[in-house]
Amino acid sequence: MTRTTATPTSTSSSRGFTGDGTHNQLNPMFARVGESIDFPLDELPQHESLPETAYQIVHDEAMLDGNSRLNLATFVGTWMDPFAQKLYAETADKNMVDKDEYPQTAAIETRCWKMLASLWNAPDTANAIGTSTIGSSEACMLGGLALKRRWQHARRAAGLSTDKPNLVLSSAVQVCWEKFCNYWDVEPRYVPITDEHRVLDGHDLDKYVDENTIGVVAIMGVTYTGMYEPVAEIAAALDRIQTQTGLDVPIHVDGASGAMIAPFLQPDLVWDFRLERVHSISTSAHKYGLVYPGLGWVIWRTVDDLPSDLVFDVTYLGGHMPSFALNFSRPGAQVLLQYYLFLRLGWEGYYKVQKTTQDVAVYLSGRIGAMPAFDLWNDGTDIPVFAWQLKAGYTDKWNLYHLSERLRLKGWLIPAYPMPDDLTDIVVQRIVVRNGLSRNLAESLMNDITEAVDYLDALEAPMPTEGLVSTFTH
């Protein structure tokens, strides 16, 4: 398969050609070899090209993507300051796994997770343990593996079977946990969310927990809506279960977003290592940790909460190092970016950034909630994320998928999707407010939403529904 790159018409001139008629580096942009002719899409080109040519082709292809600043579907950060970009370019060659060659990067990784352990109120940071990961999905996998292995050790020590481990989680859980259960043969036990119980809150938890339960996952910022799950209430329910049955079930807190929001905006909310039942916490540094993708962190309350037989001592490039990761070679640059931000912002700086982001979310949710067409699901006062649904009986001419399509015409990516099992008849839209969505941009967004709703309301006949798909993204 080939593709022709459009070429502006140019006048005849010997300039830009060598004596044998081939192009040289003086050729005008879009008219030199590789840009003025076909080039292969799905196979390796036969010949090399100028770096300027290869750059321009890739640059132009990337332009066809959406504007990342207007992507309100993703939680992943899309902006860092010029000094961070400079640091990123300078350190892109560092391999995080090669701690012998890059010992300072390894030391900085340890500093970062110790800072997070302190931020999350670990009782003794010197006795905690953590690691960086490729995003919070890997962090969740490692947290889940530690829960499973710890359960296996306890069962074997008691002479009991380890055949049927299960993990209890919300039906609104992020897909990485579905993957964990699938990949590592753990039965997922989904507690369905309902209009009455919009998050996993400990209600009826005793119906799902048994001797084979390796743990319960609590989410600080549900993907579908952004709401916190009340970790303290879940822990209290597990305390009652232990009193009644003797089952001691730990909690892993999936703090992909909220673990970098709650310490700054809700410091009195008890969700972290202040609860003894919380054994591990994970977060996405590339979400509200404000780092470019992909970086995550996972931290265990104590070294005993991470079974030692999961940690490998690897001899690599002349040195010995402990390794607990699904990936081996991985970039170290994002770890340095995280350290840069910790130094650059400090607690006060993170507070200001997260508070500004939350203020924009509350402004948007207030404006959208005041529109006759919508009912809010939540208001963005947990993490700066909120969702809304079309008011029952408001219209039969359009739905939220149509509104999502209208907003896409203006460049805004705002997904519409059904809620999880037991609530699939409810379709919501969700806005994720990140650093970079200013109040000024938010006002422009509201103008576009109002204009789109006015257009849809003015239709004389219902919009077609064929071909409508969910634009939901985790």
TrEMBL record:
<dbReference type="Pfam" id="PF00282">
    <property type="entry name" value="Pyridoxal_deC"/>
</dbReference>
<comment type="similarity">
    <text>Belongs to the group II decarboxylase family.</text>
</comment>
<dbReference type="GO" id="GO:0005829">
    <property type="term" value="C:cytosol"/>
</dbReference>
<feature type="modified residue" description="N6-(pyridoxal phosphate)lysine">
    <location>
        <position position="287"/>
    </location>
</feature>
<dbReference type="GO" id="GO:0004058">
    <property type="term" value="F:aromatic-L-amino-acid decarboxylase activity"/>
</dbReference>
<keyword id="KW-0210">Decarboxylase</keyword>
<keyword id="KW-0663">Pyridoxal phosphate</keyword>
<dbReference type="GO" id="GO:0030170">
    <property type="term" value="F:pyridoxal phosphate binding"/>
</dbReference>
<dbReference type="InterPro" id="IPR010107">
    <property type="entry name" value="Glutamate_decarboxylase"/>
</dbReference>
<dbReference type="InterPro" id="IPR002129">
    <property type="entry name" value="PyrdxlP-dep_de-COase"/>
</dbReference>
<protein>
    <recommendedName>
        <fullName>Glutamate decarboxylase</fullName>
        <ecNumber>4.1.1.15</ecNumber>
    </recommendedName>
</protein>
<dbReference type="GO" id="GO:0006538">
    <property type="term" value="P:L-glutamate catabolic process"/>
</dbReference>
<feature type="compositionally biased region" description="Low complexity">
    <location>
        <begin position="1"/>
        <end position="14"/>
    </location>
</feature>
<dbReference type="InterPro" id="IPR015421">
    <property type="entry name" value="PyrdxlP-dep_Trfase_major"/>
</dbReference>
<dbReference type="InterPro" id="IPR015424">
    <property type="entry name" value="PyrdxlP-dep_Trfase"/>
</dbReference>
<keyword id="KW-0456">Lyase</keyword>
<dbReference type="GO" id="GO:0004351">
    <property type="term" value="F:glutamate decarboxylase activity"/>
</dbReference>
<feature type="region of interest" description="Disordered">
    <location>
        <begin position="1"/>
        <end position="25"/>
    </location>
</feature>
